[in-house]
What does this fold into?
Amino acid sequence: DFLHAIQEIRPAFGASTDDLERRRLNGMVDCGDRHKHLYERAMLLVEQVKVSRGSPLVTCLLEGPSGSGKTALAATIGIDSDFPFVKIISAETMIGLSESSKCAQIVKVFEDAYKSPLSIIILDDIERLLEYVGIGPRFSNLICQTLLVLLKRPPPKGKNMLVIGTTSEVDFLDSVGFCDAFSITYNVPTLKTWDARKVLQQLNVFAPDDIDAAAEALNDMPIKKLYVIVEMAAQGERGGGAEAIYSGKEKIGISHFFDCLGDVVRP
Amino acid sequence: DFLHAIQEIRPAFGASTDDLERRRLNGMVDCGDRHKHLYERAMLLVEQVKVSRGSPLVTCLLEGPSGSGKTALAATIGIDSDFPFVKIISAETMIGLSESSKCAQIVKVFEDAYKSPLSIIILDDIERLLEYVGIGPRFSNLICQTLLVLLKRPPPKGKNMLVIGTTSEVDFLDSVGFCDAFSITYNVPTLKTWDARKVLQQLNVFAPDDIDAAAEALNDMPIKKLYVIVEMAAQGERGGGAEAIYSGKEKIGISHFFDCLGDVVRP
Amino acid sequence: DFLHAIQEIRPAFGASTDDLERRRLNGMVDCGDRHKHLYERAMLLVEQVKVSRGSPLVTCLLEGPSGSGKTALAATIGIDSDFPFVKIISAETMIGLSESSKCAQIVKVFEDAYKSPLSIIILDDIERLLEYVGIGPRFSNLICQTLLVLLKRPPPKGKNMLVIGTTSEVDFLDSVGFCDAFSITYNVPTLKTWDARKVLQQLNVFAPDDIDAAAEALNDMPIKKLYVIVEMAAQGERGGGAEAIYSGKEKIGISHFFDCLGDVVRP
Amino acid sequence: DFLHAIQEIRPAFGASTDDLERRRLNGMVDCGDRHKHLYERAMLLVEQVKVSRGSPLVTCLLEGPSGSGKTALAATIGIDSDFPFVKIISAETMIGLSESSKCAQIVKVFEDAYKSPLSIIILDDIERLLEYVGIGPRFSNLICQTLLVLLKRPPPKGKNMLVIGTTSEVDFLDSVGFCDAFSITYNVPTLKTWDARKVLQQLNVFAPDDIDAAAEALNDMPIKKLYVIVEMAAQGERGGGAEAIYSGKEKIGISHFFDCLGDVVRP
Amino acid sequence: DFLHAIQEIRPAFGASTDDLERRRLNGMVDCGDRHKHLYERAMLLVEQVKVSRGSPLVTCLLEGPSGSGKTALAATIGIDSDFPFVKIISAETMIGLSESSKCAQIVKVFEDAYKSPLSIIILDDIERLLEYVGIGPRFSNLICQTLLVLLKRPPPKGKNMLVIGTTSEVDFLDSVGFCDAFSITYNVPTLKTWDARKVLQQLNVFAPDDIDAAAEALNDMPIKKLYVIVEMAAQGERGGGAEAIYSGKEKIGISHFFDCLGDVVRP
Amino acid sequence: DFLHAIQEIRPAFGASTDDLERRRLNGMVDCGDRHKHLYERAMLLVEQVKVSRGSPLVTCLLEGPSGSGKTALAATIGIDSDFPFVKIISAETMIGLSESSKCAQIVKVFEDAYKSPLSIIILDDIERLLEYVGIGPRFSNLICQTLLVLLKRPPPKGKNMLVIGTTSEVDFLDSVGFCDAFSITYNVPTLKTWDARKVLQQLNVFAPDDIDAAAEALNDMPIKKLYVIVEMAAQGERGGGAEAIYSGKEKIGISHFFDCLGDVVRP
Ligand SMILES: Nc1ncnc2c1ncn2[C@@H]1O[C@H](COP(=O)(O)OP(=O)(O)OP(=O)(O)O)[C@@H](O)[C@H]1O
Ligand SMILES: Nc1ncnc2c1ncn2[C@@H]1O[C@H](COP(=O)(O)OP(=O)(O)OP(=O)(O)O)[C@@H](O)[C@H]1O
Ligand SMILES: Nc1ncnc2c1ncn2[C@@H]1O[C@H](COP(=O)(O)OP(=O)(O)OP(=O)(O)O)[C@@H](O)[C@H]1O
Ligand SMILES: Nc1ncnc2c1ncn2[C@@H]1O[C@H](COP(=O)(O)OP(=O)(O)OP(=O)(O)O)[C@@H](O)[C@H]1O
Ligand SMILES: Nc1ncnc2c1ncn2[C@@H]1O[C@H](COP(=O)(O)OP(=O)(O)OP(=O)(O)O)[C@@H](O)[C@H]1O
Ligand SMILES: Nc1ncnc2c1ncn2[C@@H]1O[C@H](COP(=O)(O)OP(=O)(O)OP(=O)(O)O)[C@@H](O)[C@H]1O
Ligand SMILES: [Mg+2]
Ligand SMILES: [Mg+2]
Ligand SMILES: [Mg+2]
Ligand SMILES: [Mg+2]
Ligand SMILES: [Mg+2]
Ligand SMILES: [Mg+2]
It folds into this structure.
C-alpha cells in the first residue's frame, strides 16, 4: 500500500521559491518588535544549523492564533536562509490523497532533503497535515507517527537540516507529543494596539486622525483579520470605493470601518 | 481510490442558472428589513471580490434555523452577481456516492472555478455535505478536511472567488473549525410578526381582518413552515378549497388556519 | 460500489397493491375516534398533494408505540389515495443487503416515483431501514443521510409526491434530524378502554357481560397485542377450542382470558 | 457479499430430529411443577399455530440462567410438536463464518420453513448467534437486524410458523429490542430444593437419608450444574468409584459431595 | 476468508509431548501443599473424563498471578494423563496470524481431538489467545465467540474431552463470560513463606542459616520471579560466580540476594 | 497478509555496530554515579545471559524522561557485550510500513537472533514501535500482542538472549502489561546539578567561574536538552561564535546562556 502510494506521488513540487513567495503575497510589513524578535531568533537557528557538527537536526515550532502570520514568517525564513533546499509541506497540495499517500509524500520530501548538505523543511499547519478535527478528536495516527519519527531521525552524516512547523492548535499538538518532539517552540502573537498602528501607517488608508482609533479597535487582532476588515471597509458603504482608497485619493470612513469590524467579530 | 473517484464523476452539472432558480421556485417575496440588509451586505462582498487584488478569496457563511431562507438567499446572490461562474455544491446531486467521490466532485468544482476570473461557489447545507448526524456525532472527516483546505487555499493569480456556505447546524460547524475558516458569518433569522405580516400581505390569501392575527401566530416561524401551513389551510376543512383561495375568490378560514398551525407545531 | 449496488437490485416489487394489502391482513376494524381523525387528516394531505403547485413534496411521519397500527394506517391511505404510484419501502424486502444496496433500492423507488405525476412512498419502520439498535446507539449513517436528502429534494417539475414514514422510535428519529425533516408528525396511539370495547364488539368472541371487563383490562394496549391475546385465549385452557369460538358457537372464558393476558404482559 | 455468502452455505443440516435429540442427551427427568407448567403452555402455542388463521407467526422466548434447561425444553417441544419442519439454528454449526454468512444461513432456514405448512424454528442461545460479549457491549448488528426483521415478517399465505428463542442474557436482548419482538416470554428457572429432590430421587445415587441434605444444598442450582456435581462426586475421593455408584452398588458419600459442591460454586 | 484461513494453517504441531515438556524446562519441584492439592484434584477430573458417559466434555480453568506456575501445572497434567491426544493451544505458535487464521487453527485442534476417544486440550494464556489488552479494553471478539462455542459444544458420541484453560486475567475472562463457560475454576497461588522455603531447600543454593530469611523475603512471590532472583543473585556482585554456586562449591551471599530482590520488586 | 508482509521486508539491516554507534554520535561522557550504576547492573545481566542454563531469556526495560540517554545506554551495552548478534529494532527503519509488515520485521529479527548462541535485541522507543499516541489512547494492538508473546517465548534450546527495551511512556507500557512482561525495569534519570556539572566540565565551554551557575540552572534536565542549549548558546547573540567556542578560544557568555535556556524551557 505504501510502496504503491509512493508511485502515486505527483511530479515534484514547482520551484520552491515560488511556492514560498505565494505564502506572503502582500509582502512583509513591519508588525512590531515581537514579530521582529521572532524573526531574528529563527535566523540564529539557521546559522546554528549551518555550522553544527553535533546536532545535525534542529526543529522549531511556530504556534499562535489563526492568521497571526506563522506561515508567512516561516516562508520568509526559508527564503532568507539561502539554503540550497527549502520546501514547504502543506495540506493544500495533498487534497484527497489517502493517509498513506500523504505519508509517502512527506517521507519523499525528507529523503530529497537528506541529499542536500543544508536543508529547511516547513511543515505548514501541522493539524491540517494530521487531518485533525476537534470533535472526537480525530486525526491520522499514521501521519502523526510518521512525523514523530521524522522529527527525531537525524539526517545522514554530513547533512544538516532545520525543520520549521506551524500550528494554531498547539494544545492538540502537545497532547500527541509534538511539543516534546520539537527542540524549541515560539509563540507568534496577535497584533497589539501599537503593532496594529505600525501596520496601518504602512498601509496608509486612514486619515492620520483616525489611525489611533482604528488601531485601538484592532487590538489583539491577527494580521489576517486586519487585512480582511481593511479591504471590506475600503469598498465604502455602497461599494465601488476601493480604487479611490488604494490610489490614495480618499481615506476609509472611520465609522464605516467600525461597521465592518462589527460584522467580522462575532460576539 | 481518489483518482478513480474522479473518473466516476458524472457529466458536469446542468446549466447553473437553472440549478440556482430551482432553489427559489416560488420567487422571492419581501421578508422584511433584516433579510434585506443581509442581501445588501452580501452584494457588497460580491463587489469586493470583483475589484480585490490582495484577497483573491472571500468566504461567507449564512447560518440560521432550518427553512429560514438561507439557500434561497445564496442562490439569489449567485444569480444577481452576474459572475461568469456560479455553481452550487449540494448533497442532492451526490446521493449514494462514497466520501472520496464526493470530495473529488467538490474539488472538481473548485478547479473549474479557478479557471474563471470571477466565480461564486455555494456550499449548500454544509452539515449534509459533511454527512453530519447529531448522534455520536458522526460526519465525514475526509470531506471536512477537504473543505477546510479549500476554504483557505487562494485561487491562482488573477482569479478571484467568493464562497458562500449555508448551514442550520452552526454549533457543529464551529466545533469542527468552519466558523474560523470563513472570513465572515451572517445569521439568517426566522420571521418576526411584522415580517410575517409583510409576507402574508403579498400572498393575499387572508381576509384583511385576519392578517394581523395570522401574522402574530406565525411569529418566529421560518418562511418554509409559513408556506406549508398556508397551503394546508388553503385546502379547507374538507379538502378541495385550494383553487378558490389561490384564484382569490375565497379567503382562508382563520380558525381552520389555527388548526393546521397546531398540527405542524409540535408541543 | 454504489453503481454496482444498483445492478444488484432485484426485479421490481410485486404489484404494489398486494404489497399494501398484506399490511392489513385482517382488514380494518373501527378503532375509535382518534384513529379515525388521523385517517381523515392524512387523506386531506392526499388531496393537497393532488392540487399543489408550490409544494411538490409533502412529508408526514406516523409515530407511536409498537403494534399500534401505523403500518396498517399508512397502507390504507396508500390504497385509498388512488394515486398511480404507491410503493412501500420496508426492511423486509432488503434482508441481508449491504447498506449501499439498500440505499440504491431506496433511491430507485424515488426515481421511479418521480416519473409519475402523483405518487406516495411509504417508508415503513424507519428505524429498521436505518438498522437502528438502541445500544450504542448504532445505525447506518449512509442510509440516514440518503433519506434526509430524499425527504428534502423536490420531485421534478410537474410531479407531486407524498412521503409517509412510520416509526416506533420517534425519540431516536428526532435526535438524527428526521422530525425536522418531515413537514408534519402524527401520533398513532394505543387503544383506550372505549376503543378496545369497540374492537371487541366487532370481533364478537366474548359474552356480552364480559366485554366491559375485558375492554378495561386491555386499556392502553396496542391493537396488535389485543389480537395476540384474543387468539391465545380462544384456544381454551386445554387447546382445541378455537373453532367453536370463531364459528360463534362458544365464547371465550373470561378467567382464561385474564390468564393469557398475564402471560403476555411482562411485569 | 451476501449473495456470495449464500453459496458458501454448507449442505443442509443433518436429519433434524437427531439434531434435536442431541440437546437432551440424558433424556428428560421430571424437574418439578414449574418446568412442567412451562412445557404445557408451550404446547398450547403449538396447538394455536396449528389452527390459526389470523396470526401465521407466533414467537416465544425462553429466558433463564445458564444451564437451566432452556435448550432441552425447546428441543422437546420441537420433537413433541410432530410438525413436518423443525429446525434448530445454533452458533455451533456456524463457527468461524462471517456475519453475512451467518445471516445467509439463518435466512435460508426461514425460507425453507416457509415452504412447510407448519414449522418450528428454534433460535438457540440468541446472544451467541448475535456474537454478543458483555464488554462494550459488542455484538453483530447485521445479525441483530436480520433476526428483528424475521421475527416480524409473516410467512406466506397458508403457512404457519412458531419461533422459539432461548437466551441467558435477557437484559441484553431487551435492550436491543428482542423482547418487544417476541409475542411472549417465559422464564425457565433454576431448581428449588423440592425440584432438586425430585431430580435426585430419579437419579438414585444418594442414600435415602442423604437426599434431603443434598437437595437443600442444591437449592437455586441450574440443572446443568447439578449434573456436573453429581458426576464429580460419583468418582469418589480417590477416583474409580463411578462404576459402583451408577450400577447402584454404592451411594455417593455425602461429605465428599459437599467438597465437590464447594469446588464448583465460586465464592 | 475463513475457508482460506484453514488452508493457511501450517503443518501440524510437533510431537505434542515435546511441546508440553518445553513448558516445564526446569522440571517440577515441590511447591507446597496447595499446589499439590491442585494437582490431585485435576487428576481426578482426568479420571472422570475417562469413565464419563453423561458428560463427554469437562472444562477446567486455572487462574492466578503471572508466573505462578499455571502453564507448568497444565502441561504436567497433560503428560501424566496418558491420554492419546494432548495438545496445547498457545499464542506462541500463532504470532502474526490474522484473527480468522487463529480461529481456524483452534478449531482444527478441536476437530482433531474429536477423533480421539480421550483427549486433553490446553488453552494456554487465554487472554493472549484473545489478543487482550487492558486499555479499551480490546480483544478479538471473533476468537472469543469461537472459544465460547467450543467450550460448550459436546464432542461426538463416544469421545470424551478435557479442556484446561490458563489465565492471569481472570476478571477480564469473567466479564466476557468465560468463567461461566468453564465447569470449574481453580486458583493457582503465589508461594507463601513455607512454600518458598521448600523450594529453596530443593535448589540448595543458600547457606542453611540464610534459607529462612530468604524464604521470608520471598513470601507471596510467584515461582517464576523466585527463579529470576535466584539466578541474578547467583552471578555474585561482580559476575562470574554462577558456576561455583550451581556446582555447590559456594552459596549465594544473602545481602547481595536482597539487593537483587530490590531491583526486581518495583516499589 | 502476514506471509505477504514477510516478503515485503527490505534487505537485512546494515552492519549492526554502525547502527548502534549512530545512537551515540557524540560519544559517551560521564553523566554521574547513577548512570554509571545502571551501566554496571546492565552489564551483569549480560554476564548472566552468557552462562545461564535455566533462564534462556532475560528481559530488561530502561524507562525515563525523553532525552535522558536510554537509547545511548542500550546501544553502549550492546556494543560492550561482544555478543555475536546485536540488533536494534527501531521505528526509524519502519516508517510507513503497515502494522503487519512491522510485526513481520520484528519477528524476523527474533528468528535471526534465535540462530545465534548469544544475542541482544534492543526494542528502542517501544511506544513508537506500538504507534502509541496519548489521545484515545491509540496504539497498534497487533504489534503489542506480538511483542508480549516474543518477550515471553524462550529461544530454542542452547540459545540465550537478552532483550533491552527503552521507553519514555512507562505508565502506558505498564497499562498494556509490558512492565509485567519484562523481568526487570531500570529508571534512567535526568541530570541533577552535580551530574550536569560533571558533563559541563568535560565539554569545557564555560569559564570556570560560570560552571556552577550553569549546572544549577540545568538541574533536572535530560542530557539531550543540555546539548541543545549549549549549542544554541555557543552561537553567541549575533551568530557566528561557535567556532571560537569549540576551539576553546572563547567561552559561552553566561547571560546569553540563560536567554537560550529560557527559550527552550516552556513555562
Ligand atoms: N508581516 C506581514 N506583512 C504583511 N502581510 C502579512 C505579514 N504576516 C502575515 N501576512 C499576511 O497575513 C495573512 C495571514 O498570514 P499567515 O497565513 O502567515 O498566517 P498564519 O498564522 O499562518 O494563519 P493560519 O493559522 O490560518 O495558518 C496572509 O495573507 C499573509 O500574507
Ligand atoms: N424571500 C423568499 N420569498 C419567497 N420564498 C422564499 C423566500 N426565502 C425562502 N423561500 C422559500 O422558502 C423555502 C425555504 O427556503 P430555503 O430552502 O432557502 O431555506 P433554508 O434556510 O435553506 O432551509 P434549510 O435549512 O432546510 O436548508 C423554499 O421553498 C424557498 O423557495
Ligand atoms: N384498524 C385495524 N383493524 C384491524 N386490524 C388492525 C388495524 N390496525 C392494525 N391492525 C392489525 O394490527 C397489527 C399491527 O398493526 P401494524 O403492523 O400496522 O402496527 P404498527 O404500529 O405498524 O406496528 P410496528 O410498530 O410493530 O410496526 C397488524 O396485524 C394489523 O393488521
Ligand atoms: N428436564 C431435564 N432432564 C434431564 N436433563 C436435563 C433436563 N433439562 C436439561 N437437562 C440437561 O441439563 C443440561 C443443561 O440443559 P440445557 O442445555 O437445556 O440448558 P440451557 O438453559 O439451554 O443452558 P445454556 O444457558 O447454557 O444454553 C443439558 O445437559 C441437558 O441435557
Ligand atoms: N512446580 C514447579 N517446579 C519447578 N519449576 C516450576 C514449577 N512451576 C513452575 N515452574 C517454572 O516457573 C516458571 C513459570 O511457570 P509457568 O510458566 O507455568 O507460570 P504461569 O503461571 O503459566 O505464568 P504466566 O502467567 O506468565 O503464564 C516456568 O519457568 C516454569 O518452568
Ligand atoms: N552519556 C552520554 N554522553 C554523551 N552523550 C549522550 C550520553 N547519553 C546520551 N547522550 C546523547 O544525548 C542525546 C539523547 O540521548 P538518547 O537518544 O539516548 O536519549 P533517550 O532517553 O533515548 O531519548 P528519547 O526518550 O527521546 O528516546 C543523544 O544525542 C545522545 O547521543
Ligand atoms: Mg498558516
Ligand atoms: Mg438550505
Ligand atoms: Mg409497522
Ligand atoms: Mg442452551
Ligand atoms: Mg502461563
Ligand atoms: Mg531513545
The domain at 2-187 of chain E is CATH 3.40.50.300 (Rossmann fold). Residues 148 and 177 of chain E are 8 Å apart (CA to CA). The first strand of chain E starts at residue 57 and ends at 63. Chains E and C do not touch (no CB pair under 8 Å).
